[in-house]
Amino acid sequence: MSFFKTFINSPVGPKTTHFWGPVANWGFVAAAMADIEKPPEMLSGNMTGVMCVYSALCMRFAWMIRPRNYLLLVCHASNETVQLYQLSRWARGQGYLQLKEDKTSST
């Protein structure tokens, strides 16, 4: 019981935004996971790129603040992974990641 009480009253426990912020941010990860089933044409390259930058910045924030917020760090690392995958799907769908054929003819 003392472990539970210690967790409740800790600087990153459920009485603080250090806990509820990451819990709310898992919604971004869930939404990106749900979008995996969608065709790449329905993805927004701009929004996915913004989410990649957002998660990268928030990972740095979670690492630099005291006490370190590992829950927020893991949340944004997960979001960064899923968003980068979505961005690669979008880029492939737009033709940005395809090999270009050499169109010069040899004479």
UniProtKB/TrEMBL annotation:
Alphabetized UniProt keyword annotations: Membrane, Mitochondrion, Mitochondrion inner membrane, Transmembrane, Transmembrane helix, Transport
InterPro entries: MPC (IPR005336)
GO biological process: pyruvate import into mitochondria
GO cellular component term of the entry, any: mitochondrial inner membrane
Chief localisation class: mitochondrion
Alphabetical list of Pfam families matching this protein: MPC (PF03650)
Compartments where located: Mitochondrion inner membrane
Membrane topology reported for the UniProt record: Multi-pass membrane protein
Keyword Plastid included in the entry's annotation: no
Family in the record: Belongs to the mitochondrial pyruvate carrier (MPC) (TC 2.A.105) family.
Function, as annotated: Mediates the uptake of pyruvate into mitochondria.
Full protein name: Mitochondrial pyruvate carrier
Native organism: Deinandra increscens subsp. villosa
